[in-house]
Amino acid sequence: MLVCRKYILTLLNMIKEFFLYQNKKFLRYFQNNKVAKISVTVLMLAVIALIAWGVFYLTKFGLEFTQIEDDIFMNQVGPLYIYELFLLLTGFLVFVSSIIFALVNFFKSYKDNWIMASPKYRTMLWVNSFKAINNSTWAIVIISIPLLIAAGQVFQFSFLTVFLSVLAVLIFAVICSLLAIMIIFIFSILMNLLRIKNFMLLASLVIAVVVYIAVFIWQRVVNMNLEKIFQTDNIVDPSLSVFTDYFSVFPSHLSAMVIFNFQIGDTVTAIKYVSLLLLALFIIVLIFKLLEFKFLHIWQIFQEGPFEAKKEKKQATRHLFQGSFPKSAEDVVYKKELLTSLRSSKNFLGILFLAILLFAQVALITLIDKYSNIGDDFILGENMIALQLAIVLFFITAFIVRFVFPSFSQENNTSWIMGSAPIKMSKVFYSKYKIFSLALIILGTLSLLLYIIPLQISLSLSISLNIVTLIAILTLTMLGLALGSIYINFESSDPNELSTSAPGISFIISALAYITLTTYLFYLSVSSASYLPLILFTVVSIIIILSFKRLAIKALEKMEYY
Amino acid sequence: MLEIKNLNKKFADFFAVKEINLKVVEGEFFSLIGPNGSGKTTIIKNILGLLHPSSGDILINSRSIKTSPIEAKEQMAYIPDEPKIWNHITGEEFLYFSGALYGMKKEDISKKIPELLGHFDLKGIEKNYFENYSRGNKQKFSILAALLHNPKLILVDEPIVGLDPESAEVAMDLLYKFCQSGGTVFMTTHTLPVAQKYSSRIGILNEGKLIAADTLDNLRKKMNDKNASLSEIYFNFTKHD
């Protein structure tokens, strides 16, 4: 009991310190450029409010839809299905996000040196875990609160019920995050025992686990026999186990059952499930505590890099300038961009995460059509195709915000190399534009093919869709890169910070406006069988590309490198 | 070789450098010394085109950095005080990259690299990523990159910070030999013994103004002390300015 009390007090203390620190950070943030920062904050809050409203409205609509039929079984299974799927998907995303964060930050930050050199080094395990949880779970909190408020409205939850449901979701999210860290930690310990020191091997093993889990989840969900679940026998004599058996293997099931039991008024069972979640969390934290002694050793190994005390052997590294040698300065910069982007594990994992989200979304639409009775007319209708175009472009914008927009700002420490070299900044700009637009075109085209081929969309429509996507990607990339060049910020190299600055938010808003216009004009073109909207779209895109290109190059030529 | 004409550089209302007039001829090893914040790095960055002069001009072999930046930069090389280079590029790749940026052919770069690596005994580690190099090794690679494309003028900001004593001597000898073979070095440093040993002329900067620029002997004459050390000269000039 005393030990438990001690740990609970430590945890509460940490949370208190966290909020005190966040408060100071918040106040310090507004010390400089107050107007711009207040505007950005207000805009961010507006965007979050919009997302929350969207989640609330869609959830309420979905839950009310399940209550339309006066059917006890449907009324229960419908909402439970929504809770299970939502929590399963968000839990998986938290898990993947934590994997990426932990792989890149957990053991490799040189800023932790001075604490790791002190007697308090073990706290870094908990501090870094807290950071990973904070980084990965804030989004789930933003989405789950309006969802649960919507459920509360439909099923008349009390405030306490909503609060306990949010708590259940939060605990579940923390469990997912900690599980991700634990996997990396355990793999690192095993590799150390086998005297294997290879970060790429560790990353590959972890990614293999993620893929396995994704496939397992997918098969479980897709293999659900909805016809069998809704057989007359089950509806007459409802037994939820025929449904819950599919989800009971996942940790998300516990929190889904919390919400569900509150919904049907079984408060005792709901609290039982909350207790189970807390127990699961306690067990994971206990495992962390047991593994704590290994943290310093694993951290030390990660600092060592590839150096090993053994005989020097010839390194057969294929390097950047083997093969064709650059014919021009632009070519040199292009090759350098390609290399430094591909070799960064942080970039690679970030791209992988966003690409998984994009392909998962596209695959979902395709599979809904194949395995459900929704019907081709709905999926292949102009509005769905236009919506799919919007979604692909939205994800492309997410890539641009994360990788393209901050590209010049992230050169802050290395900008002296290009700045002092006999190369025009326009060439550097074109190199970056070429490489980013090429990568995004490949990504956009692949995701559209995943949609077009299985659904057998007509050739003419497919061609239009691809051409529009190509032009839109070229335009969005130019917009992102140009705004990032015009509003270079050498004070930060953190892409998240750069993306949420005033210029970053301006880009997001401009991109969303452009995507809306693109989608609308494409929809008009398809529904009216006319090419005029597409011609208008092309003209607008060309104007954006040419004008922003000019502004960007002008800004780069005037740039100073402090 | 290098001519700075009425250079002024303002940041908002603050004059970082004021009315700098200076000529450095071919084959000269010029050192610029001064207190922290006196404007030394600002001058170097203006010469390189990393900053734009608020007024005045800078000519490198008669090419203006304002109107002909590409032609001017082709003749220069830069060794910064703290060389930040992309983490995921190897030392060897960085040398190839630098050479290619200055228009060198692959064969010429390939011939020079082994010789250059030998100066600092870097053979065997040139295929490691920059993120795995010590500060000193990063500095060494940036020195080699500067020497690679045979510039006419090398601008150096604190060349020996982070280098072990032996490597520091090798670095300074390389720069000195570069001058002997017709190149020009413009160096800023706080290490006065190094400036005293290698420089043909020394400039003293204080609060953005060039208060003296002459040979060591002439600076001593101005002080009326023919045995004065450079640090004594430095303190004398900066105190009385």
SS-based class of chain B:
alpha/beta
Do you know the CATH architecture of the largest domain in chain B?
3-Layer(aba) Sandwich
The helix count of chain A comes to 23
Tell me the CATH topology of the largest domain in chain B: Rossmann fold
User: What is the 3D shape of chain A?
Assistant: globular
Q: Tell me the Rg of chain B in angstroms.
A: 18 Å
Estimated share of beta-strand residues of chain B: 15-25%
In short, what is this structure?
The complex is a heterodimer of chains A (562) and B (241). Chain A is 79% helix and 0% strand. By secondary structure, chain A is mainly α.
Give structural attributes.
heterodimer, A: mainly alpha, 79% helix, B: 241 residues, alpha/beta, Rossmann fold, 2 domains, 4-stranded antiparallel beta sheet, 25% strand, globular
Description:
Chain A has 562 residues and is an all-alpha fold. Chain A has 2 domains: 38-304, no CATH class; 329-557, no CATH class. Chain A has 23 helices and no strands. In chain A, helix 3 packs antiparallel against helix 15 (345-371) and helix 17 runs parallel beside helix 20 (459-486). Chain A is globular, with a radius of gyration of 26 Å. Chain A starts with a helix and ends in a 5-residue tail after the last helix. Residues 307-316 of chain A have low confidence and may be disordered. Chain B is of the alpha/beta class and 241 residues long. Chain B has 2 domains: 2-75 and 152-240, 3-Layer(aba) Sandwich (Rossmann fold); 82-150, no CATH class. Chain B has 9 helices and 10 strands. Chain B has helices at 40-48, 69-73, 91-101, 106-119, 135-148, 165-180, 192-198, 216-223, 230-240; strands at residues 2-11, 14-24, 29-33, 55-60, 63-64, 76-79, 153-157, 184-188, 201-206, 209-214. Chain B has a 6-stranded mixed beta sheet, sandwiched between helices. A 4-stranded antiparallel beta sheet of chain B has the order 2-1-4-5.
